[in-house]
Amino acid sequence: AGLTIVGPTLKGIAKIAETRKPGMSAHDYLYESITNPNAYVVKGFAPGIMNQTFKQTLSAKQINDVIAYLLTLK
User: What is the pTM of this model?
Assistant: First the structure.
């Protein structure tokens, strides 16, 4: 339908995030994904696509607010 997906869906990200990296909590995985998006790139997607500057442009509270929201997406 002409739709190009550049990253994995956020649907169910709260559950998916806790399984991406063994031993890493969903919160920590999401934090790493926001602040260092190339640390783990989901198979089938290219590195460098996602915004690389959120750690510099968002406050710690803003990042934690985004993570809190993402953790509601079950």
Answer: 0.87
Q: How far is CA 59 from CA 26, 35, 69, in A?
A: 20, 11, 15
Q: Given its phi and psi angles, is residue 45 left (phi above 0), alpha (psi -120 to 50 degrees) or beta?
A: beta
| Cβ-contact 30, 13 below 8 angstroms | yes
Q: Dihedrals φ, ψ of 17, to 5°?
A: -60, -35
Tokens of 1: 């339908």
Six token digits for residue 67: 């993570």
Classify residue 5 as exposed, middle or buried by CB count within 10 Å of its CB (0-12, 13-18, 19+). exposed
Is 7 in a helix, a strand, or coil? coil
Read off the pLDDT of residues 49-72 as tens digits, 9 standing for 90 and up. 999 999 999 999 999 999 999 999
Two structure tokens written together for 69: 């929201």
